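Hi R.,

As promised on Friday, here is the backbone we talked about, encoded as structure tokens. Could you run it through your design pipeline when you get a chance and send me back a sequence?
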């Protein structure tokens, strides 16, 4: 295994928040307006919201390390922490799986994804789901390659832009 995970504590909220902003910006800034990105950072991806999410007992955040360097993070939601009520609440959600741009394309995303499935299995799940922006072609391709299938969609507001997220699932 090239990566190791460490559960993120509330006391690490600033470090997580900075990483979340960095990776969200790296992933989506080139396809969205600066105004909409700024709106999201000021209204949704705030330090206060990060602290609230970290305090939810049904949400689990992990830093991904490679050679003792943080290269990304993972957020899993169980039970009522899930962002949607789907699949009869029998699945868990991978809400965020982000790798810093400089570490992408090296297999770390696959390792992080497989680790997420392992963590879900440990909690008794055999099904997971996630939402992915329809225009994030790299991620859509990645998840299809992992065997996920589209089953629904929802709207994600980024400022004044109503974006369609594809909801995908995997039975394992």
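Update: got your reply. Pasting your designed sequence below so it's all in one thread:
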């Amino acid at each position: 295994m090239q990566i190791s995970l460490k559960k993120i504590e509330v006391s690490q909220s600033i470090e997580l928040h900075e990483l979340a902003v960095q990776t969200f910006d790296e992933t989506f800034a080139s396809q969205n307006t600066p105004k909409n990105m700024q709106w999201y950072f000021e209204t949704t991806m705030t330090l206060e919201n990060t602290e609230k999410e970290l305090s939810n007992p049904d949400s689990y955040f992990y830093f991904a390390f490679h050679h003792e360097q943080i290269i990304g993070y993972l957020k899993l939601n169980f039970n009522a922490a899930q962002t949607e009520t789907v699949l009869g609440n029998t699945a868990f959600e991978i809400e965020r799986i982000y790798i810093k741009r400089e570490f992408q394309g090296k297999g770390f995303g696959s390792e992080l994804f497989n680790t997420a499935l392992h963590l879900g299995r440990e909690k008794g799940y055999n099904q997971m789901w996630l939402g992915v922006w329809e225009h994030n072609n790299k991620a859509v391709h990645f998840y299809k390659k992992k065997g996920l299938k589209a089953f629904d969609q929802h709207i994600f507001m980024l400022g004044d832009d109503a974006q369609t997220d594809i909801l995908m699932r995997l039975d394992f």
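One thing I noticed while checking it: The chain has a mean pLDDT of 96.

Thanks again,
M.
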